[in-house]
Amino acid sequence: MSDRAGGTTGLLLAAGAGTRMGVPKALVRDAGGRPWVTTAVDTLLAGGCDAVVVVLGASAREARPLVPDRPSVRTVVASAWAEGMGASLAAGLAVVREDDETASVLVSLVDLPDLPVAAVRRVLDVPGDRRRALRRAVHDGRPGHPVLVGRVHWGPLAAVLHGDLGAGPYLRSAGAERVECGDLWDGHDHDRPGPGRR
After folding, report:
1. 93-152: per-residue pLDDT in tens?
2. How confident is the model at residue 23 (pLDDT cuts 50, 70, 90)?
3. What are the domain boundaries of the chain?
4. Mean pLDDT of the chain
5. Counting C-beta atoms within 10 Å of the first and last residue's C-beta, which end of the chain has fewer, N or C?
6. Cis status, amide bond into 65, omega within 30 of 0
């Protein structure tokens, strides 16, 4: 985990079965053969995360070798991944809470291969204490990822996560700051097969 007090850990959710994609998204590669999970980890680190935790689930054994082998990157398998994104996020938060020096997590999804480093940097650009931060990227006003969650929010957020219910309701009720990133990219995920994906 982070060696820097007050650091931010990227929390990459890559556990889903990818039913519409036809293959678990943690196994998907781009047209050049590069795994999405590798691209996502590199983007989070280049954007300012001190470490990354990759949450695996479906086909975890096959996906684990695709995760970059670096001291700042680790994987966790969400035992209840089949229940949905909420269960995967809860599993990731449980791991990150073990590190007392981590001030915040930046949550992203593996099926956002177009996520630019600039968007990560923008959401992370918080003056003051990241432990209290609660921010989410929006794209022309539409809520999306990445999402920055300061440590003071982890407990209350984890308490309402279940099944496929993710962080959205908590972010709305807690008044998460909206960070417009529509000028950087469209924010859309890729949940179906398309050109250049295999």
Report:
1. 999 999 998 999 999 999 999 999 999 999 999 988 899 999 999 999 999 999 999 999
2. confident
3. 7-180
4. 91
5. C
6. no
Q: Under 8 Å CB-to-CB from 147, ≥6 apart: which residues?
A: 106, 107, 108, 123, 135, 136, 137, 167, 171, 176
Is 80 in contact with 161 (CB distance < 8 Å)? no
Structure tokens at 107: 């949550």
Query: Do residues 120 and 136 make contact, with C-beta atoms less than 8 angstroms apart?
Result: no
- Identity of residue 138: V
Which secondary structure element, helix H or strand E, spans residue 102, and what is its range? strand 102-109
CATH of domain 7-180: 3.90.550.10
Q: Which one, of 144, 97, 117, 151, lies nearest residue 49 by Cα? A: 117
The yes-or-no verdict on residue 197 having pLDDT over 60 is no
157 and 93 in contact (C-beta within 8 Å)? yes
